[in-house]
Structures are given as C-alpha cells and as structure tokens.
C-alpha cells in the first residue's frame, strides 16, 4: 500500500486573527505556520497503513519554498518521501492548486515510477476551506473519492477499501475499489508526536522539488476582512465556589435549572 | 438565464439550508427562472418548490441514482449543466451540498465558491463573500464562469416536508449517461443515530478544556450536564489528550453548537474553539484567568478553579431542588 498524502502550509491562529496591511493575507508574524488537523490525521493514518500492509508514504504540498518545513514535520512523524511543488508566495485558487497537485502526481507516477494505492486529503484546508481540492485531484486522476472520513478499513485481498463517515443522521459506510482517494476528518486517529529519531531523520531527508505551470481560474480573491463583532461587557458573577448561588440564579433565570 | 438549485431531501423532508439556497438562487435569477434539481424519484416536492418560486424541476433518473454516491450525483449534475447551460447553481453549504458541487465543478472544469455568506450578480461576474475559519474571517471574491457554482452557509431555520398534490410545476426527467462500470463509491451501510440529547441539538452544553485536567475531571461536568438536561462538549486539548472522544469536540474541526447556554470550563477561547460555540445564546465561562478570551467574550463569567466551581454549582442546584421538593437539604 503506497499512500500519498496532500498537506497544506497554513497560518497558525490564536484567539484573534490579524490581517496584513493590504488585507490579502493573515498576519503570521507571531503565530507561524502549521498543517491543518485533518491533514495531520491523514499523515498518521498513512503511516499506520504502511506499517500494517507494507509500502511507503509520500507527502506532497503545493506552496512556497518554506512549505518544506511542514513536509519535514510529516517526515518526522514517519513519512518516507516528501515532494514540494514550489509555486512561490501568495495563495493559489483551488482549481490552480488541484492542477498543480495533479501535474505533480503525474510526474511522480509517470516519470519517477511511483504508484499510489491511496491518496489522502484533509476534508477541508484549515485556512481557505474550499472543500474541493481533493475532489478535483481525485476526479482528474480517475479515483473514487469520499469526504468526511473518520474510519478506514482496507481489504487488500479484495482490493477494496471501506470508508466510515458520520453524518447528521448517523453513520454511513462507503466502499471503493483501489486505487481510491478520501478526504479525512480529525477524530480518525490521534496523531503521534514525532520522536527524536524521527526529527533527526527528517532534518537530513532530501525533499524533491517539482515545478509546474498553472493558470489562475475564475475564482479570484479580492481581499480578506474580519466581520464586526459586537460584544457586550461580560457580567462577572463572582469567584470560586462562593459564586455558586449567583450562577444558579442565572441558570434559573435562563430556565435551564 | 436561469439559476439552478439543488434540493437534498431525506424521504421528502427538505432541510432549511436548501430553502435558503433556493431563496438566494431566486435573488440571483433576478426575474429569470429558478429551476430545481433532485436526485432520484420526486417524492412530491412540487408544491413546496412552486411556493418558493421554482418553475421547473429536473428529476435525475437512472438506475445508478439510488443511494447517495458523490461521484454519481456530481457527474449527473455536470451532464445536466452541460445540456441546460444555466447562469449558475446555488446549493446549500452542507457536507453533501459541498461534496456534490465539488464533484460537478471538477467534472465540468468550472470554478466553485463554497460557503458564501453573500452573493450578488453583476454583469459578467458574481461578486461574493465566503466564510473562512467558520465565519471569523471573510473573503471577498469574484467569480467569472459560463456557469457559476456557489454554495451558501446554512443559517438557522426549519425543515419543510413535501406535500403531494398539484403544483403547476414543470417536471423534466433527466437521464444521465453513466456506464455500468462508472467509477464511484458505493454506500454499503447506514446506521441511524438513536434518539437522545446530542451535542449539536442540546439546549445546554457543558464543555471542558485543558483546565479540567484529566478524563476523571469531567465527572462533575457530566453531573452538571445531566442536571440541566444537556450534553458534554470539550476543546481539542481534551480530545488530543484522550480525555474525551472526538465526537465531543466543539469547534472548527468538531461540532458547531448553538444551545441556549454554553458553559465553558477551563477553555481559553481560541479562535478555532470559538467558531464552534459562538452560536450559543448565552455563554458562561469558568476560568482561573479573568483575561482569557473566552471570559472577555462570554455573557457571564466566574473566576476560579473549575474543580471547585462546578461541584459547588451542582451542590447548589441539588440544594434548591431539595428545598422545592420539601426535603431537608443535605448538609454541605
Ligand atoms: C486548524 C485548527 C483547527 C482547530 N480546531 C479546533 C476545534 O475544533 N476545537 C477546539 O477546541 N480547538 C481547535 N483547535 C485548537 C485551538 O487552537 C486551541 O489549541 C484549543 O481550543 C485550546 O484548548 P483549551 O482552551 O482547552 O486549552 P488552552 O488554550 O490551554 O486553555 C486552557 C484554559 O483553561 C484555563 N485553566 C487552566 N486551569 C484551570 C482551572 N483549574 N480552572 C479553570 N480554568 C483553568 C486557563 O486559564 C486557560 O484559559 C484547532 C486548531 C487549529 C490550528
Ligand atoms: N496547497 C496545497 N498543497 C497540498 N494539498 C492541498 C493544498 N491545498 C489543499 N490541499 C489538500 O486538499 C484538501 C482540501 O482543501 P480545500 O479544498 O482548500 O478545502 C486539503 O485538506 C489538503 O489535503
């Protein structure tokens, strides 16, 4: 089972989101970058699958050269190979991102002879949340694709995979033939912390860099802004156990106690 | 040119989110027709849709269109769009709505703007605003395409049931061209959730974060939730430490809750948590740090250790209940 995982470098966010002066990006000076929690679970799942069934894990990202940092994080967790498609600074639209990923996969499969049985994405990226890059890549590669996945069951003999996903009404299970793709959601597993040995290995690992040409699509971001928040002052009910009476007064007033 | 909308339905019950999308489709059509798409046999939606301004209902009919399948629904929609060439499609930004639209967009090679909170039709392009990070950040964008695809963020509202009968709606059957070996994911199992209080629908949510400290630490929160007929939630720190299952997590990558009352115990109020609970009518924060963002954003706050405050609140509720029941309250 060779597994490909697509991860995105996204800004970290604290309790408020600050924007750059031109209003086009999130200000990352104080918070740095990370990969999203869904994608962290995708990396973890890929590593477990490769450990259980044999095979290798490749992580792939489209972004600036600095995204190598996020690839090294995945390598330190246990991924075997890392590939960076350097598209420079600035955010690409979701079609262009998907196009770059597809070209990269083709280069890896056709020229480097790689074969991927599973391609994993996050359900949605943590910053832009377009809910589509994975679907676009899967379609172009002719792979079936299920989103919102919180359980993976492989049947390598039958050449199939079962995806479990919670929905409002309960749980659905889908079956696809391999090779297949999925968008996974946090809760699928608990991602491991990288070991010291993993970190050292990741530091020395070679990251493959690919170049592709992409054109912008018909969805053009013109700016980011924060919605106005009207926030009345907090009523402090007291401190410590002595506040219990005031708290229960409020609960009764709200009609919940 | 007409604007299409997609009607998801569960045995004839149309979610509020789809009617909201339909309303926006009507605004964007600006006098032109609004046409709806349903997958599988029409369960009698005609009069509901006609009452909401729909003139034509496209019923996608094929032996492979039975249970939901992302690829089959998406490919069918892509083929219908190619044939009908509407100005745009507005669907609900539900998990399924986003998934069908992404599939259709990929197969039609059209751009797609998901989770919009506002869309206006200008000549040539649609100008729109998308929600990012659960709505804490807004992205303004322009969408230019022969057929413009958007999904809209669902708001609160009531689901509507189909009612059979004459509607005056024009119904057209669309039979997609799908090979027997069309690559798709098959739904093989579906389990319905039992009834009972769920996190997403609870009137009261008692939620705990790092300040709770351990899985045992959640016992008093469970007790409080029980007394208030509510559900227990948590922050990501609680799930990633294994104190609570992920299904309890509130936030960007967890459940979005909108209870009457949200009690946040030992939760700092990071952006990604806040987007999950900001829909609550009232928020009570219990935190040792009076400057924590959850405290400054809450309606009510108690400064203090959750291990002291929550048991004291539980005891006080019991004491008052005892008095109301005419029992002698247990000695503290
Ligand atoms: C893309 C992305 C998605 C995310 N999605 C989610 C999500 O869905 N949900 C989510 O919750 N988080 C999410 N996070 C994580 C989020 O950023 C925060 O890290 C997390 O919410 C913090 O949890 P916390 O408030 O429990 O912990 P902390 O931030 O550590 O806060 C603990 C709070 O408890 C208080 N405290 C400590 N001891 C006590 C005590 N004894 N009594 C009372 N108060 C005490 C402290 O003063 C502090 O305010 C996401 C992060 C990213 C990057
Ligand atoms: N720049 C990128 N590089 C690699 N993978 C990406 C990138 N953008 C999106 N993806 C993948 O596609 C998923 C969905 O992204 P989105 O459509 O933006 O919500 C993400 O969780 C990633 O797995």
What would your notes on this structure say?
- The complex is a heterodimer of chains A (257) and B (332).
- With 257 residues, chain A is an alpha/beta fold.
- Chain A has one domain (3-254): HUPs (Rossmann fold, 3-Layer(aba) Sandwich), CATH 3.40.50.
- Chain A is 28% helix and 29% strand.
- Chain A has a 7-stranded parallel beta sheet, with helices on both faces. A 3-stranded antiparallel beta sheet of chain A has the order 8-9-10, with no helix packed on it. A two-stranded antiparallel sheet of chain A has the order 2-3.
- By secondary structure, chain B is of the alpha/beta class.
- Chain B folds into 2 domains: 3-174, Rossmann fold; 204-324, Rossmann fold, CATH 3.40.50.
- In chain B, 28% of the residues lie in helices and 27% in strands.
- The chains are: A alpha/beta (257), B alpha/beta (332).
- At the A-B interface, helix 3, helix 4, strand 7, strand 9 and strand 10 of A face helix 3, helix 4, strand 6, strand 8 and strand 12 of B.
- Adenosine monophosphate binds at residues 6-8, 36, 38-39, 61-63, 94, 97, 101, 121-122, 124-125, 128-134 of chain A.
CATH class of the largest domain in chain B, named: Alpha Beta
CATH architecture of the largest domain in chain B: 3-Layer(aba) Sandwich
Give the strand tally of chain B: 17
Instruction: Quote the beta fraction of chain B.
Output: 25-35%
Short summary of the structure?
By secondary structure, chain A is α/β, with parallel strands linked by helices. Chain A is 28% helix and 29% strand. Chain B folds into 2 domains: 3-174, HUPs (Rossmann fold, 3-Layer(aba) Sandwich), CATH 3.40.50.620; 204-324, TPP-binding domain (Rossmann fold), CATH 3.40.50.1220.
